Amino acid sequence: MPSKAFPSNIAAPLPEARPVTDTRHGVERSDEYAWMRADNWQEVLRDPSVLDGAIRTHLEAENAYQAELMRDTEALQKDLAAEMRSRIKEDETSVPSRDGPYAYAGGFRTGGEYPRFFRVPRDGGEEELLLDGDREAEGKSYFRLGGADHSPDHSQLLWGHDDMGSELYTLSIRDLATGRDLDDTVTETGGSGEWDAKGHGFFYARLDANHRPSSVFYHPVGANPAEDRLIYDETDPGFFVNVSGSRLHDWIYVSAHDHETSECHVIPAGDPSAAPRLVAAREAGLQYELEEGGDVFFILTNADDAKDFKIVSAPVADPARANWKDVVPHEPGRLILSVMAFARFLVRLERKDGLPRIIVRERASGDEHMIAFDEEAYSLGLHGSYEYETDTLRFSYSSMTTPEQVFDYDMGTRERTLLKTQEVPSGHNPEDYVTRRLMAPAPDGALVPISLVHRRGLALDGSAPCLLYGYGAYGMAMPASFNTNCLSLVDRGFVYAIAHIRGGKEKGYAWYEDGKREKKVNSFTDFIACARHLVAEGYTSHDRIVAEGGSAGGMLMGAVANLAPEAFGGIVAAVPFVDVLNTMLDDTLPLTPPEWPEWGNPITSKEDYDTIAAYSPYDNVAAHPYPPILALAGLTDPRVTYWEPAKWVARLRALGGSDNPVLFKTNLDAGHAGASGRFSRLDEKALTYAFVLKVTGKRDSR
User: pTM of the predicted model, to two decimals?
Assistant: First the structure.
């Protein structure tokens, strides 16, 4: 039945159909909205004003239609944004992290939209402001800070910014004695760089014409960027490169990778003129990354069929594959996520039975212990450390009911010191909420974890509305962490749930493999199974579930809308990757070649073509009743281009068999991440939540 929440007398934009025919592997397809893809999309990323007039007119019409259908929620949106803002400590700062004579930190000023970076003397004292994001953003419609890294001698700050949303970052060098930036800015970079050992220059990755980080350069401070020396050039368009460094400032790591394979070169940080030295040649499916440990490298790798990864060591003098020795052997079902080396300890973050764990290992003896936690579902994070000769580990903990806590942990004495608890200025009592972890049976028998939170005392009789969030791609696990924004729904009687579907790594690497390429459909059926399990357990009912996902999670939204529209009362698709087949057939787009290992290559493989064509949301729009849908996009998004949701929305209106509205909003001043300021982002979330409340009939309820 059509939703009664929206007026029916407002006409939706109906763009002109201009069919373009494409034939691949003997299969002919027609795309009536291909014209929405701007031929000069690379130029649009750099200068949005050059967008074709007809395309801009259509996007503006869509924005006007969305605004009109949501006009009756404008006051609600303001209330929601104010609520969410009231839960944010406006002058929030991080716990300073020590490095030599200083301790470095970041945070915000009251009312500020953008971060500021500062330092204090190591043992406390007067704050020295290094970078003020609000000042740098003045006069710009969009602004996002990239990396901010001080030089080893503490005299300079390398920092990046993007003022288009297109993720083309400019790097600047700030003289910390004067507070002024030098003239030699470097443009079109990935957003960060790595200092050499003496702070005489830095290494950085430069983006090519197709927006791919494909080359690493070295820039001497004060030199002409046009004369920067090429360090590494990746010739395979399917591989991205990045550059990083070791904590001891001894090594520069140059890594090339796609989603399945990696290759690393090392350069002595004290000799930036040295040629990169290969550690292990790329081998399809072999992944590894380095962590310096004094005279050895610790290497996190899946070599030798270690599907859930293991840790090996290799001498820095010759870290070739032949010299790798197991330190932490592979254990099926225990996925090692990351490793940090200190002088006396080796720390790893791993996931087992769907939950994260921190394991501390004494390097000399090999003895290990786990840092224990009590809640049923929670999130952990290792904080970076500038220092190597320390026994102190910093980590964070939160759950869906517990605000984030930051601890220092003495790895020798096992003493845990609470440094900071996330403040919720408007007030928050964890005892008012319940967090649960459920297991939903998938059609093939797999058990899919669901993390959820709701108010204590909520009637579990199927009457509660539910926001069900999902992603399920690239092996990314969705943490069961504290989220102040979702309290605006939970406090209105919602169940807020996260579906840990296949395609992520919540249950190990095999959980990821079972949700990619030819098995991608498992991600979709898992999500639908989670919705049905929540209904079966009395948490909600199908007409009161709103599904939400972004980017690859937006593709999930498009797929489940096609497969089981009756299972959802509404759908929110943020920057949705819904035109999968056309995008994977376009090897000029920034992410396409590196994404082939994730989705398949339909250009060369008929099997991959058929697999993607069978689920690609745009290609499978059907004449059945869709629930109300809200789609969001960013004009300068290089990851999921604006035309994907624009085409999808147009086809849903033309071919879909629903009287329910499809709303579409494009942020004409932003990219993949949406609005850049911390408070302006709340306005976008308020729109989303107002839509959720509107379609579930809870807009006036508290």
Answer: 0.93
